[in-house]
Amino acid sequence: MRGRKAETISLTQFSAGDCFADARNDKTTMRIGIGYDIHRLAKGLKLILGGVEIPHTHGLDGHSDADVVVHAIMDALLGAVALGDIGQHFPNTDPKYKGASSIELLKHVCQIVSGSKFQISNLDCMVIAEAPKLAPHIEKMRGNIACACGIKVDQVSVKATTNEGVGFIGRGEGIAAQAVALLEQDCHPREGGDPVNAI
Ligand SMILES: [Zn+2]
Asked: Residue 180 Cα, ligand 1 centroid: separation in angstroms?
């Protein structure tokens, strides 16, 4: 398969190894993106992280549901395909996104990713929150994110830490999240799929 010209071949001839061979020999077939988000905590609001409503005295303030976990993941995905950020795709001046479910917005971002001929290899997210304890909710968050992205749960990692009482987060004034997304070019075979141009 190496050294082939840009010719029409059947995708069924491809294997995952071929994708990586292309990365070495020809074009870049893997992309990485990072995302970061922070929202302020306020009384009387729902706390939604990774699409899970978590009982707490405070919730995150934002135009949408202020789900920092999903926001960081969306920015990582958009960064990996170099297609801007969530502020551009879902402006907080647009009333359409007032109170929007971030999990629903994530589905849209995943359509952008697949439309760019990439598929998600894995997502890794770190939530930084002084309270509440997030461990009991991590698995549900992973499931929600995986479901929205159409990938397996073992492709999604969500981890939580505190800020050791330091600063804005340590004082319980807000919650932040960081995320990394790794994408690979969508060159895997599909059963009976159409031939495509080799890359
Ligand atoms: Zn946000």
From this structure: 16
